[in-house]
Amino acid sequence: RAKEQGKNKYKVYHSGMNMESYRRFLIQNDIRKAIQSEQFTLVFQPKVNLETYQIDSAESLIRWNHPKWGLLKPIEFISLAEETNLILDIDKWVLKKVCEQITYWKETYNKSIRVSVNFSAQHFLQRNLIEQIKEILEDTNVDPTLLEIEVTETVLLRSKDSVKQTLEQLKELNIHISLDDYGKGYSSINYLREFPFDTVKIDKAFIQEITCPQKHSRLIIESTIALMKNLGLNVVAEGVETIEQLNLLKEFKCDEVQGFIFSKPLSTNDFIRYVDKHKQNSSIIDSQWIKNN
Ligand code: C2E
Ligand code: MG
Ligand code: MG
Ligand code: MG
């Protein structure tokens, strides 16, 4: 859609610009406005603990309610925002909202839910990152142990020592640190040793291979999870959609599951309703698992 818009307008107004750069220009301009006029919104996807079947945590995911193009998913604008420093403003907006949300859930419903935010690699080039985060923590009065930051391995490919130092500083603030999308890229096991992660999230592409008969996929995933657990990491499986995947992950002692099998990302109100409903139903889920096993 963005492309079509860009193409039409380009023909009319911007004969000097090429289409791709004009499309970028349009979206990047819109992002600036969107932050000011609160067009972004957050949805929350539950992570279900496979031992207790409780929901102790969730991932925040951004959506853009664009005045012309409707509800946009991150794939339509995050990489464009990453080409400029706009991603820094977006993620900081998300971080602030999430901290406020954590505090709200705690104060209003007496629920301690740890919520993660996705942080693009650019943040790790910012000298004052830690100061900025500290300021948000103070402003929102959030319990930092309920805050989680997810980074992908692209962060780790940059200057290793400074990234490691930054992650350690985040840990000193008692923030939970996760490696996202494990198994999507090169995903060296060494990253898990070298950097101070609390959690590793296995990518949905990797999870989908779990039931595939070839390539020893099942064995590889089982051993990977065992290794991660032996390293003391909390293991989350992303993109779990089927009961077969769930059963295997339970058997492999994976700690938490995030996926459509339990829930899509939800609005704040739906999320709280889901947590309550899920609590009542967790025994049913458990017996269903036993039945299927
Ligand atoms: P991610 O961090 O790996 O988030 C998980 C993505 O998988 C989400 O897509 C979620 O809706 C989707 N998902 C969850 N369970 C299932 C499932 O069972 N099946 C399938 N097919 N998909 C599932 P979403 O919300 O479209 O986000 C895509 C990516 O955009 C995220 O991947 C993350 O890298 C990025 N992103 C999202 N929000 C933010 C943000 O606030 N800041 C930054 N920098 N990046 C963000
Ligand atoms: Mg993530
Ligand atoms: Mg992921
Ligand atoms: Mg990701």
TrEMBL record:
Signal peptide: none annotated. Residues 24-279 form the EAL domain. This is EAL domain-containing protein. It comes from Ureibacillus yapensis. The lineage of its organism: Bacteria, Bacillati, Bacillota, Bacilli, Bacillales. The chain holds residues 300 to 592 of 689 of the full protein.
